[in-house]
Write a structure and sequence with these properties.
The protein is of the alpha+beta class and about 240 residues long. It has five helices and eight strands. The strands form two sheets. Strands 1-2-3-4-5 form a five-stranded antiparallel sheet. It has a three-stranded mixed sheet with strand order 6-7-8, with no helix packed on it. The radius of gyration is 20 Å and the shape is globular.
C-alpha cells in the first residue's frame, strides 16, 4: 500500500517510537538511550488531514527534508561490563533514519568495528533490522570481540586484538582514560540531552540506597530543579554502576 508523501514523516516517527517501545519493554543490559530535544519525536505532532490528498503537491511538514526523511537524534551510553572495555562508560550519539543508522562515539574507541571518525560500522545484514537488534550487536561487539572479527572495518586493530592482546588492551585503556575525563563534560544546552554529574552522597545517597535494595525511588528524589548537578549520576567509573 502506498502513502501520500505528506504522511511519511508521521509513519517514520511511529516506526521509531515502536522501536523505542520495544527497547523499553525488553531493555538491553548496560545500555541507556535518551532522545534529544531536536529529535522529531519531541516536536509537536503533525496533524494528518481527515481525507487523503488526491495529488502529491501538498508541501511536506517542516520537520522532514525534501525527501520526507527525518533524522532522530538520540544520546546514548553503553556500559560493556565485560571484555576489554569492561570497566568503561562510553557515550555516543545515535542518528536514526528509516533506512540508515549511524552511531558515533563521543571519544576515541579502539575497536575493530569503529573507524577513525569514531563511527561504529554495522554489517550489511543488520542495516534493515530494528534498533534493538542493532544495539544488541553493538553490545556483543564490546563483550565478545572474537565474535565480530568477520565484520571488522579496521583490519589493523583486528589483527592486533588476535596477535597482541596486551598491546591492544593498552590502547583500550588509553581510550577509557579519555572517556573518563570527558564523561562529565556538557557539550550542549539541550535540556533533554544525556548528561552526567559526579556522585554526591548528600544529593544522591537516598536514591542510591533504594536502588541497591531494588526499591523504586519516589520521583521527588530526582527533581532536577532541586539539585545543582543535573543529569545522570555516575557513581564510580570503575564500578559500572549508574544512577
Amino acid at each position: 500500500m502506498s502513502h501520500h508523501p505528506s504522511f511519511k514523516p508521521d509513519l517514520d516517527r511511529h516506526r521509531f517510537l515502536a522501536q523505542l517501545a520495544l527497547l523499553n519493554k525488553s531493555p538491553l543490559d548496560g545500555l541507556i538511550l535518551q532522545p534529544r530535544k531536536a529529535s522529531p519525536i519531541r516536536q509537536k505532532p503533525i496533524v494528518i488531514p481527515t481525507s487523503t490528498p488526491t495529488d502529491e503537491s501538498t508541501p511536506l511538514p517542516q520537520t522532514a527534508d525534501q525527501d520526507g526523511v527525518e533524522t532522530f537524534l538520540v544520546d546514548g551510553v553503553i556500559f560493556p561490563r565485560e571484555g576489554p572495555f569492561g570497566r568503561g562508560c562510553l557515550k555516543f550519539v545515535l542518528r536514526k533514519q528509516p533506512n540508515a543508522t549511524q552511531l558515533q562515539f563521543s571519544t576515541a574507541v579502539y575497536h575493530p568495528c569503529v573507524d577513525s571518525e569514531r563511527r561504529f560500522h554495522f554489517p550489511t545484514r543488520l542495516l534493515s533490522q530494528n534498533l534493538r537488534d542493532q544495539l544488541a550487536y553493538v553490545k556483543q561487539a564490546f563483550v565478545d570481540v572474537d565474535s565480530i572479527l568477520c565484520d571488522a572495518v579496521n583490519q589493523e586493530i583486528a589483527t592486533q586484538w588476535t596477535k597482541d592482546p596486551v598491546g591492544y588492551q593498552l590502547q583500550v585503556e588509553e581510550c577509557l582514560r579519555e572517556a573518563d575525563m570527558q564523561l562529565y563534560s556538557a557539550e550542549h544546552d539541550d535540556g533533554f540531552a544525556m548528561q552526567f554529574s559526579r556522585y554526591a552522597a548528600a544529593e544522591h545517597g537516598a536514591g542510591y540506597q533504594l536502588l541497591c535494595k531494588g526499591t523504586a525511588a519516589p520521583p521527588e528524589l530526582f527533581q532536577l530543579d532541586q539539585s545543582p548537578s543535573q543529569g545522570l549520576s555516575f557513581v564510580d567509573v570503575a564500578s559500572q554502576q549508574g544512577l
